[in-house]
YkgJ family cysteine cluster protein (Rheinheimera riviphila), 194 residues
Amino acid sequence: MARLEQLSQQVLAVMAEIGQDYSKYQHHRGLFCRSGCGECCQHPGIEATVLEMLPLAFRLIEEQRADQVLSDLAERDDARCYFYQSHSEDRKQGQCSVYQQRPGICRFFGAAGTTGRAGEYQLSTCRNIKTDHPAAYAETLIALESDPPPLIRHGQEQIRQLDPELASNPMPLNQALATALEKALFEQYYQSAE
Ligand code: SF4
């Protein structure tokens, strides 16, 4: 198996493990996402690294959708994620169409930790979760030091260690995918030529 394809499998395994940690924390603290909510996926500022997008790139190649997606992305004038499928007119309801291969950043959505200047734990969570679960949110804030949330930067670092260079330059999600696709296709082209 060629290097990037192998790397993509390692990235997927690490991201799946990290995703479970964040999901466990979110459920254990009672900070559940609103059913069918896709508001966070609509944000045009979501960034990912090329490394995080490799598993999705290889899935698209396997499904023979790579060229179509690349051409759609080149014409696209919308920074929001290409893979978000909205189910409502205001686009607030929807779902991820590539859930198993979603990048690391998407696995931190919901409730995850950051640290402040003095190293104190902080909670990064969405407005809807705060509104829907005010008691759980308040209790989680009180318990931040005794029951700390998994830190976003730790998850990012675990992924980064697999290939610091491909993880060095976060960029808009669609752009990161296009770059990952180009690299994966390039590798496959040379492999088949050999
Ligand atoms: S990859 Fe999936 S989870 Fe991530 S922003 Fe796109 S639709 Fe949402």
Remarks:
- Strands lie at 47-48, 84-86, 94-96, 111-115, 121-125, 171-172.
- The longest helix spans residues 3-28.
- The chain has a mean pLDDT of 95.
- The CA atoms of residues 84 and 92 lie 11 Å apart.
